Amino acid sequence: MAEQFLQETGEAQTPVRLDEVDRKILSLLQQDASLSLDQIAERVGASKTPVWNRIRKLREAGVIRRQVAILNPEALGLEACFFVLIRTAEHDRDWAQRFLKALRERPEVVEAHRLAGDIDYILKVQVRNARAYDRFYQSLISEVRIYNVTALLSMEEIKATSALPIAEAAR
């Protein structure tokens, strides 16, 4: 996403300065974005209008990207989570654009990161089973030339959160 932001704007985003009330609001929203404005205001010890203005400013500044429902993949029959390590011999702009397009068109890719080191990319792919992963893999390599792919099946999710360490950002 940072790369996408850089590609779209041509500049890096400057971190936003947050005070204690902003951090409390963000912590509450990270835990439960369905909280009402009244509930948030009560929990941070402020009135509704200033809290609403803070949330609006945090959205405008890009701190709050969006609010979503986090679904249970197993309840939807998406029981297999694969981490896919990709090495490529291609690093030109045309290849990268085709690769990014291929990833964006595949809803089973729930995360994708460009890495430093021996592995170029890591993908988190959520699918029904190994057969569904193979269909994903065959489709991807038919569109984009990849030097090496290693797929690792997650046996158990030990920790998963979308909450960022806000206290760390304050240091």
TrEMBL record:
Transmembrane segments annotated in the record for this chain: none
HTH asnC-type domain residues: 18-79
CDD domains the UniProt entry points to: HTH_ARSR
Keywords associated with the record: DNA-binding, Transcription, Transcription regulation
Keyword Thylakoid assigned: no
Protein name: Lrp/AsnC family transcriptional regulator
SMART domains in the record: HTH_ASNC (SM00344)
InterPro entries: ArsR-like_HTH (IPR011991), AsnC-type_HTH_dom (IPR000485), Dimeric_a/b-barrel (IPR011008), Tscrpt_reg_AsnC-like (IPR019888), Tscrpt_reg_AsnC/Lrp_C (IPR019887), WH-like_DNA-bd_sf (IPR036388), WH_DNA-bd_sf (IPR036390)
Keyword Isomerase set for record: no
